[in-house]
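Because discrete structure vocabularies remain unfamiliar, we turn briefly to a single example record, giving the amino acid sequence and backbone structure tokens:
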Amino acid sequence: MKTQPSTKKAEGRERIAKRMARAGLCSRREAEAWIEQGRVSVDGKTIKSPALDVGPESVITVDGKPLAGAEQTRLWLYHKPRGLVTTNRDPEGRPTVFDHLPPGMPRTMSVGRLDMDSEGLLLLTNDGELARALELPATGWIRRYRVRIYSTPTPETIAKLAKGVTVEDVRYGPIKVQLEDKPTPKDQPKGRNIWVNVTLSEGKNREIRRVFEHVGHPVSRLIRVGYGAFTLGNLPEGQVKEISGKVLREQCGALLKRTPKKE
């Protein structure tokens, strides 16, 4: 009679990149890149492939420094100003979001990005796994924006965007557009800048700007006002607000890999 393998030994084992992301060090994608660059060692041996499971007893070092234990999941709302790049380091030396966070903030990563000229709600977390889950279109979290564009789009253009468009061989999914103000006849001949509300479920790189440029309505200002269950509200520019553990569990419970910090 064959002995069944112990499940206890398997408990707690996970991919090395996932462990690094759970420690709040980086995203899983960044972890995989670091591993391929030879920056990660497990039990004294440098690894070059992320296809490795590690357990609670594994000794992991990154750039020669021990990997910290998994932190409790935290999430912040941040009102990103214009002029900041959403990256930890910019090769061109431009100011970054992480250079301008209020004092006392722990190491965080962004959920998706806002380009340098865009502003508004940016979610920050110390959990790479949560960041990755919230970014995936399959999660179903809608992104909402106020967008200032040139001229009033026709009903035909709005219907076209609702079906999705292709720009330079890149397919963009459905974009819902709603005019904030009802256009008057005097707005039509020369056109003017108007505000529209835009919702989408994926958010590829500079998607809104590229799509509206493609249909003849260049964007002059873009403000993200909502991401899934969270809204920008009256949060002042440049400030952060931490989401309570209770709300985090209510809104992201199915995505969390561990219990958020207690109240």
Observations:
- The radius of gyration is 22 Å.
- The first helix runs from residue 7 to 10.
